[in-house]
Amino acid sequence: MATGFLADRQRLLWIVVLSLLLLTLVTQRNHNTNSDPRATLLVSQALVQHGTIQLDSLGEPLLQSYGYVIQQKNGHYYHYFPLGSALLATPVVAIANAAGVDMRQHEPTMQMIIVALCAIGILLLLYRTARLYLGRDASLALTALGWFGSAYASTLGTALWSHDLAVLFASLAIYLALRERPLTGKFALIGASLFLAYLCRPSMALLAPALLAFLMTRSWKTAIAAALVQGGLLMLFVLWSFHEFGQPLPDYYLPKRLEGTQFATALYGNLLSPARGLLVYSPFLLLPILCLPFLLWKQKRNLPLLILALGWPLLHYLTVSRFPHWWAGWSYGSRLMVDALPGLLLGTAVCLASLEKWRRPALALFAVLAAFSIFVNGYQGLYNTYALQWNAAPNIDEHPELLFDWSYPPFLNTQHRQQERLDRFHLAVMPPLQGKVRITYDEPNAGFDGFSVIENGFRWTEGTASTLSFKLENASTLSGRLSLQAGFLGSQRLAVCLNGTLVFEGAYQGGERDIRIQVPAGLLHDGLNRLDFALPDAHPPGTADTRILGMAFHLLAVD
């Protein structure tokens, strides 16, 4: 009777965890499907329909709209990012194609379906790994914390990144290596999992030596056989790369990505910065980092487990800190450290098994750190849109020094704090405009927040709200007449506010316009001025371009 009750209780808890997982995947507001993962499933579709990873059949105009994720090499078009995710997603895309679903129109939705499948697999493997050291309830609690309290939620749960399937196969390899019960073909599964993790994410190559070293202590025959399987698959990949690209590995897999010159800065940034610090966003991971060496060092025979649970994450941390772009662009939290989480969460399980014998204050502290981690990743990382806007304005790739600004951490960003941060930034770096003011679409001394990239003679507003910031000197000499030259995408309503005061409203049916606005005396002032554009009818242009566009800005004249 008691056993049946416990089983029913465990099922109920699993239903709760999986329901929360699926709920957050469906209701979250911070999707990244139009970031680096964009066009991943176009490669899957090309494999299904044409038997190639080349994207030439889509046509140059469409491919150009995908921007930096597409590269041209040897006269062909390719997706720039790792091949593994596209290859492994091919069966799902084949089923979708058979049902009439085209990735050119439905890739974001299909990405999230695959993300859900990956997430369930990662949770199950995390639970099974934790059960090797913990009881059922503690294992399920760690499983929930491992997802909602880490970059698993705030990165893996937002798009089909190359990390998703890499983490899935890394987790599978680790579980199989730790599992002592015999399993037919275990060596082949481990070797294939290690290779597939690498195929999805090249930095996962660092897992293989640590895991195989651990496996040698369990069964040297299994370790050698797994290494041979992985090595054989790697050789096939190299031969294919020579055939496809004329080089041993595709560009993304080459070691040239380790040519960073800010190693010391990146070491601090990836661990403790307010924007990318692993221990800032998931402080509960302090437990394995601080405790695991002491726990396992006392038992020398467990040294291989220490190498797997902590040595591999440490090597990964040192490696990604060598990347020139170590902050991973417009990311949230410690995205580049997500690949090492299977090891750190394994270490957490080992430590918790010992922590159960410690005093309650230690568990209470761990619970507080866990709650904060869930708030930062499972809530702010998924539902606070200003946490992502933090990267865009100011552009973090142009001003990486802001990664270390504790005054405005991304996980505490709000609409008010974002505007306050922008104003402070513009006041600090923007020189004043003098005399007759002519602000063109490419003016370097103005702030274009909520605008897209510079195009041929204009730049689009992106989203439903954009802000043009500029500093004036001797504003009292200006008459207060504004002349806005802009084009509109279809039917658009426009509202313009100057320094918080509504100065214009209008509606346009596409085309180019020259809009004259007379503003009240004194509204323009010395120092920073903000012109806010509200375009509630902004929409995608109806092509593969998924940006939300409204107004093409050419020029603002202030007389």
From TrEMBL:
<feature type="transmembrane region" description="Helical">
    <location>
        <begin position="332"/>
        <end position="355"/>
    </location>
</feature>
<feature type="transmembrane region" description="Helical">
    <location>
        <begin position="133"/>
        <end position="153"/>
    </location>
</feature>
<keyword id="KW-0812">Transmembrane</keyword>
<feature type="transmembrane region" description="Helical">
    <location>
        <begin position="222"/>
        <end position="242"/>
    </location>
</feature>
<feature type="transmembrane region" description="Helical">
    <location>
        <begin position="278"/>
        <end position="296"/>
    </location>
</feature>
<keyword id="KW-1133">Transmembrane helix</keyword>
<feature type="transmembrane region" description="Helical">
    <location>
        <begin position="77"/>
        <end position="98"/>
    </location>
</feature>
<feature type="transmembrane region" description="Helical">
    <location>
        <begin position="190"/>
        <end position="215"/>
    </location>
</feature>
<protein>
    <recommendedName>
        <fullName>Glycosyltransferase RgtA/B/C/D-like domain-containing protein</fullName>
    </recommendedName>
</protein>
<feature type="transmembrane region" description="Helical">
    <location>
        <begin position="303"/>
        <end position="320"/>
    </location>
</feature>
<feature type="transmembrane region" description="Helical">
    <location>
        <begin position="110"/>
        <end position="127"/>
    </location>
</feature>
<feature type="transmembrane region" description="Helical">
    <location>
        <begin position="362"/>
        <end position="379"/>
    </location>
</feature>
<keyword id="KW-0472">Membrane</keyword>
